[in-house]
Amino acid sequence: MRLDKLLANMGIGSRKEVKELIKKKSVSVNGKIIKSNLSIDPEFDRIECNGQVVEYQKYVYFMLHKPSGYLSATRDQEQKTVLDLLKTEDQARSPFPVGRLDKNTEGLLLLTNDGQLAHELLSPKKHVDKTYFAKISGFVTENDVAEFLQGVDIGDYITKPAKLKILKAKEVSEIEVTITEGKFHQVKRMFEAVGKEVLYLKRLTMGSLELDSTLKLGQYRALTDQEIQNILEETKG
């Protein structure tokens, strides 16, 4: 990897700023001051900038509390995307959302540049649980619970069994639902199929990963080492 690219990816500065640091002899590789850009091996070479060791991370993993109004995409010509919520140095790592949350859906969204992990988490073979909280127009009943458990005909597809938990059964009901797949607008279409409408939807979990209750809407943080280990473990095999 080119030295300037690594330093830029690690948030040291833009490519232009990094090249200026190299010119000013502020960067060393394996204890030697570097006077011009060069190729390095980030796994083995020791890189320092202004006397501080630069720790190389191949992959980044961010937990975002997605607000309504943002697309789960990396770019869009007209609308805001979830990447607009990231700091410039984190955007430079080229993360992308794992799966999609609808524009008006809130909650847990994983952002990473680890393509293999993303593939495994989204693979239908893995059956990774995803739990949502929702407010529903209409009384949610035990009949709905039974129908969700059997699988719901949403028109072009019969869903896999889903666990529906009633928190409040009123004119506007509150529920939690756990699904193991991620068809387009799946939760909304499942409730439409039983004659009800989703008014509000928020994802709480994805596999072992739980939305951090301290994150406000639009905030994000890096996953902990334990969280990363847990999701890597559950996608093995």
From TrEMBL:
Task: Give any Pfam family that matches.
Answer: S4
- Record-listed E.C. numbers: 5.4.99.-
Q: Name one GO biological process term.
A: enzyme-directed rRNA pseudouridine synthesis
Which residue ranges does the record assign to the RNA-binding S4 domain?
Answer: 1-58
Which protein, by its recorded name, is this? Pseudouridine synthase
InterPro entries assigned to the protein according to its UniProt record, in alphabetical order: PsdUridine_s_RsuA/RluB/E/F_cat, PsdUridine_synth_cat_dom_sf, PsdUridine_synth_RsuA/RluA, PsdUridine_synth_RsuA/RluB/E/F, PsdUridine_synth_RsuA/RluB_CS, RsuA_PseudoU_synthase, S4_RNA-bd, S4_RNA-bd_sf
Q: Which CDD domains match?
A: PseudoU_synth_RsuA, S4
Q: Domain of life, per the record?
A: Bacteria
What species is given as this protein's source?
Gracilibacillus dipsosauri
GO cellular component: a single term: cytosol
Protein family (similarity comment): Belongs to the pseudouridine synthase RsuA family.
An MF annotation (GO) of this entry: RNA binding
Which EC class is this protein assigned?
isomerase
Which UniProt keywords are given for this protein, alphabetically ordered? Isomerase, RNA-binding
Q: Which PROSITE patterns match?
A: PSI_RSU (PS01149), S4 (PS50889)
